[in-house]
């Protein structure tokens, strides 16, 4: 990381499917840089880039600079409900303590007996609570803890079903100190530009510029080799809904000699940088496809084998980091 001032890493745990988002404002002095960990909902794996959504998620560290008056953190409260997903909890017909206990227990996959054992009461006590025979219970806190839900929500139905769990703030003086922890990898920016003449390199990795940090655990799970990976920003809407304008993508530039059908690649064709889904065509050609369903605006491009000299594959997109 270049620049002056101290560097602070602010970590915030997220869980999937946030329905409730609130803003927290943390002052950040001018000249400081903060590494902000964004949650799992922001990392969409290469499987997500395919035709099927997947649940491979990870953490990413976003650098935020002190030129802004405030550091804005998005804190997500997780949605752990199923049939009521994308609805406010209060609107899910859980207007009694018993219904809320039943709902949370079923989501947890517990029987009344199993919940009773965790709470330290009889199964009959849990049955009475769920059936409304006990309008209230002195075991409320123990039941909430056993179910992993908010005691306030369980008692009144107000607020979120689960509570945000905050991890302690971790502070590093500089990027090297953060890297030495072994918990993070740093990916440089991939710069792609038109070239002059056949065979000329059309891209380079900016090792001296701003680098983005990711958790090493996530990188290993995604089989991302830091020696072969870099980031770049998506421009335009041709790959919506899977890639949005402004998304930061991770590109494996070692995967540029063999095309895997249906995967997303960064390529240069006719001196234009594109992020597209590629398919091999009969006879050695290539089908270059946008994910955007509007084919009047984003039609397929069919490249014949004799035209492949005009196409240069930079690398395969293996992950995308988007906003909430």
From TrEMBL:
<keyword id="KW-0804">Transcription</keyword>
<protein>
    <submittedName>
        <fullName>Putative phage repressor</fullName>
    </submittedName>
</protein>
<keyword id="KW-0238">DNA-binding</keyword>
<dbReference type="GO" id="GO:0003677">
    <property type="term" value="F:DNA binding"/>
</dbReference>
<dbReference type="InterPro" id="IPR039418">
    <property type="entry name" value="LexA-like"/>
</dbReference>
<dbReference type="InterPro" id="IPR010982">
    <property type="entry name" value="Lambda_DNA-bd_dom_sf"/>
</dbReference>
<dbReference type="Pfam" id="PF01381">
    <property type="entry name" value="HTH_3"/>
</dbReference>
<keyword id="KW-0805">Transcription regulation</keyword>
<feature type="domain" description="HTH cro/C1-type">
    <location>
        <begin position="101"/>
        <end position="154"/>
    </location>
</feature>
<dbReference type="InterPro" id="IPR015927">
    <property type="entry name" value="Peptidase_S24_S26A/B/C"/>
</dbReference>
<dbReference type="Pfam" id="PF00717">
    <property type="entry name" value="Peptidase_S24"/>
</dbReference>
<dbReference type="InterPro" id="IPR001387">
    <property type="entry name" value="Cro/C1-type_HTH"/>
</dbReference>
<dbReference type="InterPro" id="IPR036286">
    <property type="entry name" value="LexA/Signal_pep-like_sf"/>
</dbReference>
């Amino acid at each position: 990381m270049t620049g002056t001032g101290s560097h602070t890493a602010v970590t915030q745990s997220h869980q999937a499917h946030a329905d409730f988002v609130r803003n927290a404002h943390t002052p950040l002095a001018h000249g400081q840089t903060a590494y902000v960990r964004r949650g799992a909902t922001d990392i969409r794996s290469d499987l997500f880039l395919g035709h099927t959504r997947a649940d491979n998620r990870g953490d990413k560290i976003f650098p935020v600079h002190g030129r802004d008056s405030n550091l804005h953190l998005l804190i997500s409260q997780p949605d752990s409900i199923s049939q009521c997903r994308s609805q406010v909890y209060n609107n899910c017909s859980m207007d009694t303590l018993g219904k809320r206990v039943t709902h949370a227990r079923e989501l947890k996959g517990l029987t009344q007996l199993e919940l009773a054992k965790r709470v330290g009461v009889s199964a009959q006590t849990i049955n009475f609570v769920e059936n409304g025979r006990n309008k209230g219970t002195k075991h409320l806190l123990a039941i909430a803890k056993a179910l992993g839900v908010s005691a306030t929500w369980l008692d009144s139905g107000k607020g979120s079903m689960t509570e945000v769990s905050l991890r302690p703030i971790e502070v590093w003086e500089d990027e090297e100190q953060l890297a030495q922890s072994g918990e993070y990898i740093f990916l440089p920016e991939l710069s792609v530009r038109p070239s002059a003449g056949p065979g000329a390199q059309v891209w380079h990795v900016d090792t001296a510029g701003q680098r983005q940090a990711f958790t090493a655990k996530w990188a290993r799970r995604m089989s991302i080799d830091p020696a072969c990976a870099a980031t770049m920003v998506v421009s335009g809407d041709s790959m919506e809904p899977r890639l949005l304008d402004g998304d930061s993508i991770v590109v494996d530039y070692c995967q540029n000699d063999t095309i895997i059908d249906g995967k997303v690649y960064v390529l240069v064709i006719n001196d234009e940088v594109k992020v597209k889904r590629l398919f091999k065509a009969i006879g050695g050609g290539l089908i270059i496809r946008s994910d955007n369903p509007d084919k009047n605006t984003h039609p397929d491009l069919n490249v014949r084998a004799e035209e492949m000299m005009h196409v240069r594959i930079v690398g395969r997109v293996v992950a995308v980091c988007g906003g909430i």
